[in-house]
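Onboarding guide, step 5: your first structure request.
Type a short instruction followed by the sequence, for example:

Predict the 3D structure of this protein.
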Amino acid sequence: MKIKLYEIILLLFAMVLMTGCYKRFVMSEKEIKAYYKTHGPEPQYFSYDTLNRSIFYAHAGDCNLPLLLFIHGAPGRWYGYKQFLNDSSLLKHFQIISVDRPGYGKSAKGGALVSIKEQALLLQPIINQYEQVPIFVIGRSYGAPIAAYLAANNQDKVKGLMLISNAAAPQLEKFWWFSKPAHSAIGKMLLRKPLNVAGDEKFAHQKELELMLPKWKEIMQPTIVLQGGKDVIISPENGHFTDSVLVNAPHQYIFLPENGHLISSEAPDTVIKYLFILKSWPETSYSSEFSPAQ
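The system replies with structure tokens like these:
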């Protein structure tokens, strides 16, 4: 197949753009050490093997406290939630885990895993290990449907769910002008591996979200949905979609008109506020404060 000159130029421009954006969110081991040297104690690191994969995660806090399990998007790493792992207000009330999802970081061996179901199954051992305490699962972007799948599969173990910038609606899956060139054979040779993993997930995501549709009604736990009005990575209409499919879950949809996609980085205090609301959510009765947004 012949590639035209303008296609090559567009492809190279896309590579520079994507690589530049990606580098903004990557930290070396040295940078992680430096961060925690000035921002509080560094978490402990663990890994476990399951279903022919090795899963890495960071853990902070008292193992007797309720658990916050954070799941990142695509691409991403555990340290995308680093500011929560050393937050003193959270650590008084929670222990915290942030994972490297299959295909990323120190869970990268085995390559991309595009199945939402299989990703959730690979994180299930964390749920099983900490089932003696209340568990709250937080997912953002592509990690949010995985968090939702875990909640649906663990109605007794997972006590609450937070979905941030939830990439959930199959019909709203968003592609850019550089998506196909970046996912081509040449594009994959030029891109870093985590971007290729994210691309593999991207091109399978619509089908995976269609398979996910029956799962939403299985979620019974209290759920907080956070969606930014200036989100350019996913359509903000994903927030309304999520609100509409949580038919059996008491939930609150919070629309943040001035926020973009990276709410957990842009507005961590807002996330923390709603984590405490989620923790204190009554199990048998719900006040008007927690009614779904209209």
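Each response can be followed by summary notes, for example: Confidence is low (pLDDT under 50) at residues 284-294.
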